[in-house]
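Problem 12. The chain below contains 285 residues. Write out its predicted structure in token notation.
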Amino acid sequence: LFFLQGARLSREAILKGISHWKLHAAIASTTFILFPLIGLGLSTAVPQLLPPVLWLGVLFLCALPSTVQSSIALTSIAEGNVPGALCSATASNLAGMVLTPLLIAAMSSVHGARVDHTGALQIAVQLLVPFIAGHLARPWIGEWAQRNRSLLAITDRGSILLVVYTAFSAAVVRGIWYQVPSITLMVLFLIVGVILAVVLAATMISAHALGFARPDEVAAVFCGSQKSLVSGVPIANVLFSAGAIGPVLLPVMIYYPAQLFICAWLARWYASRLVAFPATHRVRR
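Solution.
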């Protein structure tokens, strides 16, 4: 998956997207500052609502990077800044290989937990090295990858499907659904929903406050609110013990489909507003 992502990412797309520093700073701040602050705030304010291992999972969710596939797809549906979204989401994934272990180690230490942040090198080997290898191989396979995007999309979606299936299966095998009482599960759903709602509202408000054009607002909303399960599973396998992976990944497994359903509706709403008011919504002054 990461090898093929590197092969498809052109230098032109990187250069075109990287110049919009204000957009990338806003997205990175949402992903690696706003999310962790929300997670820490909730876990500190109401620690009794969830057991410690599930709070650790919430903090892990908040430390994850943005997705690439869904961020770009949602931005495209909403007629947003796709090159900017591509650059930001890719940069988020690359930065997350280092920042996620450091963030989760720092946040978990606040609650007295211990996480092995030395696994960053192993994470880089699993995710970053294939990505760089794919990009270096672009002169030989880049054109082929562009011609066969529909075929490679099956690989991307199949990989994501296997990741989701593996994560849910591991949770079932370890009896996670029996370990977590129904009321606790309902509270977890509520907390995850609150996090998503707060982030979506905050990104919309901040995009307006920064005077973003409509396409940039769309990219900020969808790149900033997405969290990557594809990156989360291998990172969790490195950072946490086998017995803790199921509960730790549970908030991510709840958040992942929720972000897809809600943001898909939101993307269609953005697109419908553009059709209804094409002149007034394309550019914000």
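Discussion. Residues 279-285 have pLDDT under 50 and may be disordered. Students who got a different answer should revisit the alignment rule from Section 12.3.
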